[in-house]
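Pasting as-is:
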Amino acid sequence: MKKLTDEVRRDFNIPFFYTDESLKNDVLEGNAYLKEFVGDIDYTKDLVAKMLLKNYAFYSYNKRVDDFRENYSDAIFDWQFNKFKAVHDETGEE
């Protein structure tokens, strides 16, 4: 999570006075939120999940989590559906 926290700070130009601890909490909250949809997530392999997490943290930094949920609901649904489809395809079940 440290690497993701650093990426969020860099990618969204989060100023130094917003503490690492606060930003880390934003990332952890985003991770918990996204895990509700698909379970465990490997952010090194799932770049859509990584994008969603980073944007969640940015919205949280701006105190706009409700806007994130509204703005990204379609993307989250598509991501969740594709994760389910991938698991379903691997098992060979219908």
